[in-house]
Design a protein that fits this description.
There is one protein chain. The protein is globular and about 70 Å long. It folds into two domains: 3-273 and 475-495, Aldehyde Dehydrogenase, Chain A, domain 1 (3-Layer(aba) Sandwich); 278-463, 3-Layer(aba) Sandwich (Aldehyde Dehydrogenase, Chain A, domain 2). Helices cover 37% and strands 20% of the residues. The protein has helices at 9-16, 55-68, 74-77, 80-96, 98-109, 113-132, 176-190, 204-216, 230-239, 252-262, 287-299, 319-332, 351-367, 398-401, 439-448, 483-486, and strands at residues 21-23, 26-28, 35-40, 45-51, 142-143, 155-163, 166-170, 193-197, 223-225, 245-249, 268-272, 278-281, 311-315, 370-373, 388-391, 408-414, 428-429, 431-435, 453-456, 471-472, 475-476, 489-497. A seven-stranded mixed sheet has the order 14-15-16-13-12-18-19, with helices on both faces. A six-stranded mixed sheet has the order 9-8-7-10-11-21, sandwiched between helices. With 498 residues, it is an alpha/beta fold. It has 16 helices and 22 strands. The structure holds adenosine-5'-diphosphate.
């Protein structure tokens, strides 16, 4: 079959394997012996069977990670420059196995193979390359202190930056490999040990990444990968008394559960949660770039991006042109299996997501939104949805108020004279877009938007050096860049009386 021929042989071999979890140097079944199935979202057929972890497996992984974090362990005694080298090697290995990893992403998640090759894989590799440089460059500072009640005393005071310890990392299914990289990169750069819990929908690339970690020379036990469902593996990891920190990317709803679970031992928490990002097009924008830009802001990765530009605001005088342009763009997108080179948009990740997104589409219809493009399921096999543009919405409608996490954008006009009044009218604050040729308007708008990232005349631009994270209910902390190191570092003040 022609499409089948697109599947990289290494990926095909990997998918066909008996899948096990990585704990220490061992590849193991779940302690219970249980497994679960993952599905190819383009067909709905079973793709692979993986171990169904439970709290027993989490306990074992935490003990293993703890041992790997012992001060005399190979990881803790490795020099910073050697640690940087093994992290860099991991980035190299990702590139070397790029076609295989990209194909695994496409089979497991559904995204077009060309996108997985052009974005997911190189961004994941670059994250490790970028973070590898920090191992030798981050550190504390020496401080000038004077203590009022000890006049004349001399001091030597400094700070030490130490790894936070054993870290649980729970990641979603929208960019499985890249989210693993965002999490692992800074944890490894600072010298932490990790239990990684990939999403149950997309565990394959994380398991392959576990192999590459060992091949790169990261000592066994530093990276453990436990597969399973959120409530059965994620929850015990977030609650575990011997875990020092939990880092989570996923829905705001589960983020709250993580926070509660972490309260027991007050472990450190970082959260990268949902979004409902405003994308603002002013009348003086260059529409040749703004129209496809606004369309890509929502349709990239099928709208399954926490930063997706899902609320489009267009200045009145150009409203009709922009709506027509974005709708044309939506209708022009070729929807099909990710493995097909002609596909520009693949299926949603799961039956659950298909049902969820279709639920939003019917609620939009009931609440009186006008469907300008798309609006329904695409075909009857696999989890495909049409790229959809909804007009005539308001902030009370579910489609404008809640995160859909699918290829659905709402669009509304706003009057000339500054920021659209509803741009910040959301509990989220992850990202935003601005399209204008007026430099000072761009910067004024960027300042006024309450969001962790503002893209001006572009959208969905990510780089390992750029901190990413949310205001308000979009999260706690910033991933990537030097900021990410802070999430994995304890600062110790040392004071010496001379
Ligand atoms: P989505 O709803 O988009 O699938 P989730 O936020 O449910 O996203 O999932 C993101 C990650 O969180 C996945 O790895 C999932 O298994 C995990 N997860 C889900 N529920 C819990 C929970 N109660 N505790 C810990 N992790 C969870």
């Amino acid at each position: 079959m022609a499409l089948d021929a697109q599947i990289d042989q290494h990926a095909r071999d990997f998918v066909a394997r008996h899948h096990q979890m990585l704990i220490g140097k061992d590849w193991v079944d779940a302690a219970s012996g249980q497994t679960f199935e993952t599905y190819d979202p383009a067909t709905g057929e079973v793709l692979a069977t993986v171990p169904r972890g439970s709290s027993e497996d989490i306990d074992r992984a935490v003990k293993t990670a703890r041992a790997a974090f012992d001060p005399s362990s190979p990881w803790r005694t490795m020099s910073p420059s050697e640690r940087g080298r093994v992290i860099h090697r991991l980035g190299d290995l990702i590139l070397e196995h790029g076609d295989e990893l990209a194909t695994l992403e496409t089979l497991d998640n559904g995204k077009p193979l060309a996108i997985a090759k052009a974005a997911d894989v190189p961004l994941a590799a670059d994250l490790f390359h970028y973070m590898s440089g920090w191992t030798t460059k981050s550190g504390g500072s020496t401080l000038q202190i004077s203590v009022p009640y000890m006049p004349g005393a001399e001091w030597h005071a400094y700070t030490l930056h130490e790894p936070v310890g054993v870290v649980g990392q729970i990641i979603p299914w929208n960019f499985p490999l890249l989210m693993a990289a965002w999490k692992l990169g800074p944890a490894l750069a600072t010298g932490c040990c990790v239990i990684l819990k990939p999403a149950e929908q997309t565990p394959l690339s994380a398991l392959r990444l576990g192999e590459l970690c060992l091949e790169a020379g990261i000592p066994p036990g530093v990276v453990n990968v436990v597969t399973g469902f959120g409530e059965e593996t994620g929850a015990p990891l977030a609650a575990h008394p011997d875990v020092d920190k939990v880092a989570f990317t996923g829905s705001t709803e589960v983020g709250r559960l993580i926070l509660n679970a972490a309260a027991g031992n007050l472990k450190k928490v970082s959260l990268e949660l949902g979004g409902k990002s405003p994308n603002v097009v002013y009348a003086d924008a260059d529409l040749e770039t703004a129209i496809p830009g606004a369309a890509n802001a929502i349709f990239f990765n099928h709208g399954q991006c926490c930063a997706a530009g899902s609320r489009l605001f267009v200045e009145e005088s150009i409203y009709d042109d922009v709506v027509a342009g974005v709708a044309d763009h939506a209708r022009g997108i070729t929807v099909g299996p990710g493995i097909d080179p002609n596909s520009q948009m693949g299926p949603l990740v799961s039956q659950e997501q298909l049902d969820r997104v279709c639920g939003f589409l019917s609620s939009g219809e009931t609440e009186g939104a006008e469907t300008v493009a798309g609006g329904k399921r695409h075909g009857d096999r696999g989890y495909f949805v049409e790229p959809t543009v909804l007009a005539g919405t308001n902030p009370q409608m579910k489609v404008e108020a809640e995160e859909i996490f699918g290829p659905v954008v709402t669009v509304r006009p706003f009057e000339k004279g500054g920021l659209p009044p509803d741009a910040n009218n959301t509990n989220y604050g992850l990202a935003a877009g601005v399209w204008t040729q007026d430099l000072s308007k761009a910067h004024r708008t960027a300042k006024a938007l309450r969001a962790g990232t503002v893209w001006v005349n572009c959208y969905n631009v990510f780089d390992a050096a750029l901190p990413f994270g949310g205001y308000k209910e979009s999260g706690w902390g910033r991933e990537m860049g030097a900021e990410a190191l802070k999430l994995y570092t304890e600062v110790k003040s040392v004071v010496t009386l001379l």
